[in-house]
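Methods — Computational structure assignment.
A single polypeptide chain was analysed. Its primary sequence is given first, followed by the predicted tertiary structure written as structure tokens.
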Amino acid sequence: MPTLSHLITRRHQVLPGFGLTLGFTLVYLSLIVLLPLSAVVFKTLSLTFAQFWEIVTAPRVLASYKLSFGASLLAAGINTVFGLLLAWSLVRYRFPGRKLVDALIDLPFTLPTAVAGIALTALYAGNGWLGKLLEPYGIKVAFTPLGVLVALVFIGLPFVVRTVQPILEDLELELEEAATCLGAHRWQIIRLVILPALTPALLTGFALAFARAVGEYGSVIFIAGNIPMVSEITPLMIITKLEQYDYTGATAIALVMLGASFSLLLVINSLQSWSAASSSSTDGRKT
């Protein structure tokens, strides 16, 4: 006669047996993820360390690293601030067009990146709607590193908003009311009550926006201008190497980006674990 533990285990086995499920998972993961990544590593191993170092530290490549990582870091920081403000407005206030604004936040998710790049270029070019207003003040956006930053802010904003928004919705107003009754000022409530609860979500949103921006290509390539040593991003350097049939050079640069992506993935997973642990400890104190 099956015990209670066996019945519970059997009830939760929605998919077929563990062996079949694990085998399918490993095969799928190998074909879709591991084999392509292994090809990048093995192709790069055909280079000597001196050759590899010469490729990944070339002045033009280093300039692309500086632009890609620097603009991605700055864009993620901007998105963290304004994403928090936008999420706060959507959660705490009711205003005409709120649902439309909430739906438009997901536009960078659904819009093809090439379309986004062309639209931003047309908007910020010298004869564009915004470009012709900014250029008289000496502000040129399209075909400059500033244009790269604008594109990365555009594609990264939803990551912060959608990460912070559910945490704000679950944040109890009673905590703020209790702090007010105890004599706390508005900024004290924000600093001591709200921000500690939102910090894990903000850091996770920052990491996700940064990771997306580092590998972005389609929405950046049109507005960047692709001027050597000025507005070339690292994904473009990889494409350039491939067009020159320099596959080992392309994989060497891609390996550097791969290492950065794995580091970001580790940070994101750590932040998510921290967020889950913080939520669990908060729930435990409430009970």
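Note: DSSP finds 14 helices and no strands in the chain.
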